[in-house]
Specification:
CATH class of the largest domain: Alpha Beta
CATH topology of the largest domain: Rossmann fold
Helix content: 25-40%
Order of helices and strands: EEEHEEEHHHHEHEHEEH
Strand content: 15-25%
Number of domains: 2
Largest sheet: 6 strands, mixed
Low-confidence stretches: 1-5
CATH superfamily of the largest domain: P-loop containing nucleotide triphosphate hydrolases
Mean pLDDT: 88
Length: 275
């Protein structure tokens, strides 16, 4: 599906007349595994992402969302098209990158504070210099009293909060998250949605967020890029015009419901949701 063939509706994202320069630019990105007859995961992904946007990638399992995120992280390379960060090809993990996956991947033999400080350790920075920031982040997500506790003593939600703090330690310009809350119970997931939104408001990093949850994408995002089934194409690029300071109560508003119904309708038309 070419960019000109992407679905256009009243919800579709339209760049502002005077838009900031794209931080990320994908032009005709393709990803095929194996030889010319191998699995085609992504086909003709074309979009620009400005600095400071929170962009959710939403679609069915196997549609290439995570593949595209790994390409953004420099962990995989496209087999076609171009993928640029600040005008230069992404050939490896960019500087000032934060990344979080569905599994928290905390080191059980390190305390929560030590886990939060790992990026400084890996980057060759002085951990003592970054300790105040690590403590500040842990305090912001309700882990102030657990800095010396080991991960095995914490709930899944608390571990994931610590993982988010770790990803934010070095003040990343780009934060990439792949289903970070997918394994959590509904109440914990709701709270972490609020925590992440508050952190994004304060830090204003650019976020790429993979999810299967329509309501989660609408709550968190400034834009939602809806992927079709494999090979992943952009079915629609949606601007989310909701209050910047969002509380969970926004999910009960007519505007929020209008977005979720529209996206659900897209999936119904794709044959992915059946009554």
């Amino acid at each position: 599906m070419a960019a000109s063939e992407q679905r256009v509706s009243a919800f579709s994202y339209v760049p502002r007349a005077v838009a900031p320069r794209a931080m990320i630019s994908a032009q005709g990105v393709q990803k095929r595994y194996g030889d010319a007859n191998g699995l085609l995961a992504l086909e003709n992904i074309t979009l620009d992402i400005a600095e400071g946007e929170f962009v959710s990638l939403l679609g069915p399992s196997g549609c290439g969302k995570s593949t595209f995120l790994r390409c953004l992280a420099g962990l995989e390379r496209p087999t076609g098209g171009s993928l640029l960060l600040d005008g230069a090809p992404i050939n490896g993990p960019p500087e000032k990158l934060g990344i979080a996956f569905q599994r928290d991947a905390l080191l059980d033999w390190f305390s929560i504070l030590e886990n939060a400080l790992l990026p400084a350790d890996f980057g060759g920075y002085d951990k003592k210099t970054y300790e105040p920031r690590a403590r500040e982040l842990l305090n912001m997500v309700g882990l102030k009293d657990f800095t010396d506790v080991y991960p095995s003593a914490l709930s899944g939600g608390m571990r994931q909060r610590a993982a988010i703090c770790r990803s934010l330690l070095l003040k990343p310009r780009l934060l990439l998250m792949d289903e970070p809350f997918g394994a959590l119970d509904a109440l914990t997931r709701d709270q972490l949605n609020v925590d992440l939104h508050h952190l994004w408001q304060q830090q204003r990093m650019t976020v790429g967020f993979v999810t299967h949850s329509i309501s989660e994408a609408v709550f968190l995002s400034t834009r939602i890029v809806v992927f079709s089934a494999r090979p992943g194409k952009i079915a629609e690029d949606i601007h989310v015009d909701l209050p910047d300071d969002r509380k969970l109560a926004v999910r009960d508003t007519p505007d929020f419901i209008r977005y979720t119904q529209h996206i659900r309708g897209l999936f119904e038309k794709m044959g992915l949701i059946h009554d």
